[in-house]
UniProtKB/TrEMBL annotation:
Transmembrane spans: 15-38, 68-86, 98-116, 152-172, 197-225, 237-259, 265-284
Residue span, Iron dependent repressor metal binding and dimerisation domain: 363-432
Pfam families the record matches: ABC-3 (PF00950), Fe_dep_repr_C (PF02742)
BP term (GO), one: transmembrane transport
Record's keyword terms, sorted: Cell membrane, Membrane, Transmembrane, Transmembrane helix, Transport
Membrane topology label: Multi-pass membrane protein
The organism's taxonomic lineage, starting at the top: Bacteria, Pseudomonadati, Planctomycetota, Planctomycetia, Pirellulales
Superkingdom of origin organism: Bacteria
Family: Belongs to the ABC-3 integral membrane protein family.
Subcellular location: Cell membrane
Main location: membrane
Source organism of the structure: Adhaeretor mobilis
The protein, known as: Manganese transport system membrane protein MntB
Any GO MF annotation of the entry: protein dimerization activity
GO cellular component terms, semicolon-separated: ATP-binding cassette (ABC) transporter complex
């Protein structure tokens, strides 16, 4: 009964507005954030979120009005000035980009604080609102539109979201090219510098539009974390943008639910959820995740050990006087540990080797695979001597590493260049 009561209280009208405002804000930030991540300018969002304070302060001091239009103009001007000064210091004064960014945005932020303290009087400046935002209060500040009460935050952030979508659609090809290769974009007739300033203007505009809802600090996470999460999950730009928007919406929904149950700040919890989703992407991403990478490394290690075992058994067979290898001796020769044990079990199960009289021996299928490996090894040794002039005592280790990655095509190229019938540089036969 208590659970049902809590669930009914969770989905009240104000709560739905909070989710909607959070989703709109996060999505607007995520769209431009994708290009910041691709351009390796993630901290530019942090810089702009601080430096726009100077533009807001100047706009308010000049107009003494909370009207959103002059505040937006002041914020965009401050954002463009920050971008211009950062680029100028980096390009002409040879200041490293991170250092120039740090100098400019801290100076602009300090200037904004001075202007507020010196010239803006009779205004309550809520520090907590600056850091945390007031997402929980946004449903209470409304305006009547077509007979319905709409939160002012929606009327502020929704047009910015539509503007971001419109500019993104209009300049998709240009931003795509300039994000990966600015020089190519300029060669194709796109001004990479102009596109950069348009992006920075949108980031500044989005930052100001998000200021009331999520605060100047948390907006940085909204700009970067959904985009970084999408970057972990996709290597293509269009899916990356879609996934970033989906992560932004999901963060808003889950953040609100958890914040309601834990009685904490909505915007902060949405950011925590976004960070948790990023952590999950880092670990479980199907292409670049830690578990995926670990599994690929284990598979590669097993393949190398299996091939080393086959090649070793083939060389033992070549030495007619040599004693067959026992399982313990074979594992020891391959470095010991669990990998040789697992590799031997897999080869035995697949009919590549057999255990007979406590000796590991190749089957017909295993001997065919081993012959290809040894042929690749000795062809590569021959190539290193004939074409690179390496001494004999320097060719075994490189060939031992490369033999695992020589496929049929490369082996065919080597066969065309070399005389396999003459044997390898050590005088051993190169198997057919």
């Amino acid at each position: 009964m208590s659970t049902l009561l809590m669930a009914s209280e969770l989905w009240h009208a104000d709560g739905l507005w909070i989710i909607a405002i959070g989703a709109l804000t996060n999505t607007a930030c995520a769209l431009v954030g994708c290009f910041l991540v691709l351009r390796r300018m993630s901290m530019m969002g942090d810089a702009l979120s601080h430096s726009v304070l100077a533009g807001l302060a100047v706009a308010f001091a000049m107009t003494q009005s909370y009207s959103i239009v002059p505040l937006f103009i002041g914020a965009i001007a401050a954002g463009l000035l920050t971008t211009f000064l950062t680029q100028t210091l980096h390009q002409y004064a040879r200041v490293p980009s991170d250092a120039s960014m740090g100098v400019v945005f801290t100076s602009m932020f300090a200037l904004g604080v001075i202007i507020i303290k010196k010239f803006v009087t009779g205004v309550h400046f809520d520090i907590a609102c600056v850091y945390e935002g007031a997402l929980g209060l946004t449903p209470f500040f409304t305006r009547e539109i077509a007979g319905r009460e709409i939160p002012l935050a929606v009327l502020t952030i929704a047009p910015v979201l539509l503007l971001n979508i419109g500019v993104l659609s209009l300049l998709w090809k240009e931003w795509k090219v300039s994000s990966f290769d600015p020089a190519l974009a300029t060669t194709m007739g796109f001004s990479a510098t102009l596109l950069h300033y348009v992006l920075m203007a949108l980031v500044a505009l989005t930052t100001v539009a998000s200021f009331e809802a999520v605060g100047s600090i948390l907006v940085v996470a909204m700009l970067i974390v959904p985009a970084a999460t999408a970057h972990q999950l996709s290597d293509r730009l269009a899916p990356m943008v879609i996934v970033a928007a989906a992560v932004a919406v999901l963060s808003s929904f889950l953040g609100y639910v958890i914040a309601e149950y834990r009685n904490t700040n909505y915007a902060a919890m949405m950011t925590v959820v976004a960070g948790a989703l990023y952590a999950l992407a880092v670990v479980f991403s199907p292409r670049h995740g830690l578990l995926t990478t670990l599994w690929k490394n284990i598979q590669l290690s097993l393949r190398v050990v299996k091939e080393d075992l086959l090649a070793m058994l083939y060389r033992v067979e070549e030495l007619e006087a040599a004693q067959p290898l026992t399982p313990a001796a074979a594992r020891e020769a391959l470095g010991g540990g669990w990998l040789p044990l697992v590799a031997a079990k897999m080869l035995q199960r697949r009919g590549r080797i057999r255990l007979e009289n406590n000796a590991v021996q190749l089957t017909k299928k295993g001997r065919t695979a081993a012959r290809k490996l040894v042929r690749s090894h000795r062809l590569w040794e021959t190539y290193l001597v004939e074409y690179l002039g390496l001494p004999l005592d320097h060719i075994h280790e490189p060939a031992h590493r490369v033999e695992h990655f020589i496929d049929e095509r490369i082996r065919g190229k080597l066969e065309e260049e070399l005389d396999a019938s003459a044997g390898d540089p050590h005088g051993r036969e190169i198997p057919e």
